[in-house]
Every structure is written in structure tokens, then in C-alpha cells.
Design brief:
Structural class: alpha/beta
Strand order of the largest sheet: 1-2-3-4-7-8-9-11
Shape: globular
Order of helices and strands: EHEHEHEHHEEEHEHEHHHHEHEH
Helix content: 40-55%
Strand content: 15-25%
Number of strands: 11
Oligomer: single chain
Radius of gyration: 20 Å
Largest sheet: 8 strands, parallel, barrel
Length: about 375
């Protein structure tokens, strides 16, 4: 169908609080930051964490190239404020899939060496299967942690440099930056993968981040998340253009990744019927937040802010019908053939290699998540590899 292509598939489970009272928005503007934690029932939490780990482990058994976790704070959107806890468990219980932490929010921590140590531990336990994701964290995380967003980019770059040096230089050595100061950098353990685990940069589309990730000594994977495919294509082209015009090299599809919710059913009709309430709850209830939460003052430049706000307006505003989400490819849904054709077309258009599939979203129950995981792995992936 789509010719001889190299595509890799990663299962991403956000771990949302599925039992969320969806009428919360009659009182509160978002399921993040302002939603009281009285909405969280720890007995449900216990069941959810066990269930979500089961699903991630199933993806490993089904042959997905990777399983993915991430970091969010004070939200029903994703119950992983400490992704290293989940990644550590997966390092022990999975056998072949890469473990992608997408990612740790570097500017939010006052000691980035703890991330260097945590990632190195996961890499050793898993025998070199870690993908180390670094993010700045969406704007709401700065409200949640009290970190000044105006220093976000500076702290991100400096924390990154410190972590890479901690992984690659023989210690002990000093590190003196504007935000981080250490007399002794001497990380034990060292990472299993040498010189260090591969680095991915999930991003909303900040031009500064894309320019930095594409720099020739890095050439990191740029992963765009939850945007209309037209915007994804624009950001990928920005990466390629910057690589060519500013860095004088041709970026490959190996440097491009796309995270998108997907649902596969036996037929288009079955898939649409099963997915509709859950994907609409995901976009309209779980992801809902104000512009001020997503892009606080100082978080990014005005130029990037406009591009990100335009790309994210579909995500933020609520009231989105599944048909519209499918039209702009913020959601891919249908029979195996339909999903296969859409992903093939997207690959042909932008030449990306990494597809991060959100196969559980919002209120989607366990049995439909398992069905989705199995159908995608058996009926879609083999045709696209």
C-alpha cells in the first residue's frame, strides 16, 4: 500500500483519570490546575495504575517498538507526575520495547542531576532500552510548580547541557551556569547506552525548540503532539528548512515523530461508534484549558506563541465533534485498512519515521483499549513497517 518505508510504532498511554465527573466544567475552567483533588478517588487510582501498567506491558508483548510515559502535574489529564516511577516498573516487566519517557520537564527541577541519575538507572535496568525525552513542560506546569516561565528556555538549555555532560564526561568535575551550580558532577551509575541514550524533544511547535533540536551536534527527534496534521506538516517543514538553511544538512525522517490518538475497529462504522464518546471527552473535557494556562507570559516569544496558539486552538476550545477531529487528523479512526491508508498518506506527505499512537484516551475502557492495541498491532503495523 505505502511502499517500502521505515516506520516505527510506539504505544503512548497518558494515564488519564477515567472516572472523572465530566460535568466538572460547570464549575471549573479546566481539568488541570484548578480542579480540586477531591475529584480523585484513591481506590479508583489504585485500579487505574494497575490497569494502565497492564496495557503498557501488553503493548510490549504485542511487538510495539516502544512504550511511552510522560510528566504532568496537578491534572486529571495524566496521572504521571513522576514518570520515572512508571518507567522503572516497565524496565523490569517489559522485554523488547523501548521505554520512552516523553519527557521530564527540565526547567521545573532545581537539581537536573537527579534526572541524569534516574534515566541512567532506567537505562541500566532495561539493558539499554531507554529513550530520554526532555521537555520544557506546558505552561500549566509553571503555575503548578511556581517556576518563572520567563526563564524556561534558559533553564531547559542549561539543564540539558548539565545532564549530557554528566553522562559523557569523567567526573568529578564542576559545573557553573546561570541557573545551576555544582562543585561535584560525578554521576553514578553511568547510562548503559554510550555515549548516552537517544534524546527526543516533544514540543508544541516552538521555533526556538525546533532550531535547537535540529542543531548538527544534536539532531534530536522532534515529536509534535496533538495538533492538526496541517500544523504538524508545517512544523516538520520548519525543522527541515532550518537544518538545510542554518545547519547545512538534510534532516531525515528518523528525526521526526508525531503523537496522535488512534482507534481501530473491525469496520469504520464500529470504530466510529465505539470511539466517539471517549475521544470527545478526551479533547473537550480532559485537555481543556485556557490560553493563559498553556502559554503564560514569558514562556515563549511572540512569534512562536502565535504559531502554537493557532495550532492548539482546536485542542483548547472544547466543543469538538469527532468528525471534525478526524477531518483535521487530530484523531485517526476506522477499520484497519482506513487507518493504514491515512497513516500511509501522512508518511508520504512528511516522511516521518516515528508514530506515537495514543491508543487509550479519556474514558476509553480497558476492554476497548486492549482491542485497539491488538487490532493496530496485528492488522495495521505489519502493512506499514
Amino acid at each position: 500500500l505505502v511502499g517500502n518505508k521505515l516506520m516505527k510504532f510506539y504505544y503512548f498511554g497518558l494515564m488519564p483519570y477515567g472516572p472523572l465527573d465530566l460535568d466538572y466544567d460547570k464549575k471549573y475552567s479546566s481539568a488541570s490546575l484548578v480542579l480540586p483533588n477531591s475529584y480523585f478517588n484513591p481506590k479508583e487510582g489504585n485500579k487505574l495504575y494497575r490497569r494502565y501498567l497492564d496495557e503498557l506491558e501488553l503493548a510490549d508483548a504485542l511487538g510495539y517498538d516502544g512504550v511511552c510515559v510522560n510528566e504532568h502535574h496537578q491534572t486529571a489529564y495524566g496521572l504521571m507526575p513522576s514518570p520515572g516511577v512508571i518507567a522503572g516498573a516497565l524496565a523490569r516487566t517489559t522485554t523488547q520495547a523501548k521505554i520512552a519517557v516523553l519527557g521530564r520537564a527540565l526547567p521545573l527541577v532545581n537539581n537536573p542531576l537527579t534526572i541524569a541519575e534516574e534515566y541512567a538507572m532506567i537505562d541500566n535496568i532495561s539493558g539499554g532500552r531507554l529513550i530520554s525525552g526532555f521537555v520544557r513542560g506546558i505552561g500549566v506546569e509553571y503555575h503548578a510548580t511556581g517556576v518563572n516561565p520567563a526563564f524556561s528556555l534558559e533553564r531547559f538549555h542549561e539543564a540539558h547541557d548539565l545532564i549530557i555532560e554528566a553522562w559523557t564526561k569523567t567526573g568529578p568535575f564542576p559545573f557553573e551556569g546561570d541557573h545551576y551550580h555544582f562543585e561535584y558532577v560525578n554521576t553514578w551509575p553511568r547510562p548503559f547506552q554510550q555515549p548516552h541514550p537517544p534524546v527526543w524533544i516533544p514540543s508544541q511547535g516552538s521555533e526556538e525548540t525546533i532550531r535547537w533540536a535540529s542543531e548538527p551536534t544534536r539532531k534530536y527527534v522532534y515529536l509534535n503532539t496533538y495538533s492538526p496534521f496541517e500544523a504538524v506538516s508545517t512544523f516538520f517543514q520548519m525543522y527541515r528548512d532550518i537544518a538545510e538553511k542554518e545547519w547545512n544538512y538534510e534532516a531525515s525522517g528518523e528525526q521526526l515523530g508525531w503523537a496522535v490518538p488512534i482507534y481501530v475497529g473491525e469496520t469504520d462504522e464500529i470504530a466510529h461508534k465505539e470511539a466517539k464518546p471517549h475521544i470527545e471527552a478526551f479533547y473537550n473535557k480532559f485537555l481543556r484549558m485556557t490560553n493563559q494556562m498553556l502559554l503564560p507570559p514569558g514562556y515563549t516569544t511572540l512569534t512562536s506563541m502565535k504559531k502554537i496558539a493557532e495550532a492548539k486552538k482546536e485542542m483548547l476550545s472544547g466543543g469538538r465533534e469527532m468528525s471534525r477531529l478526524m477531518d483535521n487528523r487530530m484523531f485517526i479512526c476506522g477499520s484497519p485498512n482506513t487507518v493504514q491508508e491515512i497513516l500511509g498518506e501522512c508518511h508520504d506527505q512528511v516522511g516521518l519515521e516515528h508514530i506515537v499512537c495514543t491508543l487509550q484516551f479519556g474514558t476509553l475502557p480497558h476492554e476497548l483499549t486492549v482491542k485497539n492495541l491488538e487490532l493496530f498491532s496485528k492488522e495495521v503495523m505489519p502493512q506499514l513497517r
